[in-house]
């Protein structure tokens, strides 16, 4: 699981760059960042794959990409209501990942064993008429960090449980579009 470290008080404009190969790709800043990128991914038994890009060492999120998601439900997910909400962007804890700098570029490489052992569950995507939810965990959500139209749901231990996209849904071809 990836943990919330803090909340960046500013919000960012979200760009949807979903295309034929990627079902969902959201950018929180222009793609030509010279910052070091960190990636968290999950590889479960059904081979779903989600990458979340962070700036290192701050843990500020700049990209969410669903590379492969075989579990897609075309219905609305139950999103928690009446819980604490904070406006901004989540800052994630990057310390436990022990990254090492790749001398050939600006990317951070992770020790694969540590990265994959923590994330053996497949993600699920719920595509409703007015929203899409990327479900990572069934834990009870206690906090929403809102960067409109995206809501990040965290449990009591600050683990990311879901990413909820308001006014964005998967179309008939399975690609994200704004409504």
Describe the SSE topology.
Layout: E1 4-8, E2 15-16, E3 24-27, E4 37-40, E5 49-55, E6 61-68, E7 72-73, E8 84-87, E9 89-92, E10 100-101, E11 108-109, H1 112-117, E12 124-127, E13 131-135, E14 141-147, E15 150-155, E16 160-166, E17 168-170, E18 176-178
Parallel strand pairs: 7-12, 8-14
Antiparallel strand pairs: 1-9, 2-3, 3-6, 4-5, 5-6, 10-11, 12-13, 13-16, 14-15, 15-16, 17-18
Report on the architecture of this protein:
With 179 residues, the chain is mostly beta strands. It is built from one helix and 18 strands. The protein has a seven-stranded mixed β-sheet, with no helix packed on it. A five-stranded antiparallel β-sheet has the order 2-3-6-5-4, with no helix packed on it. Strands 1-9 form a two-stranded antiparallel sheet. The chain is globular.
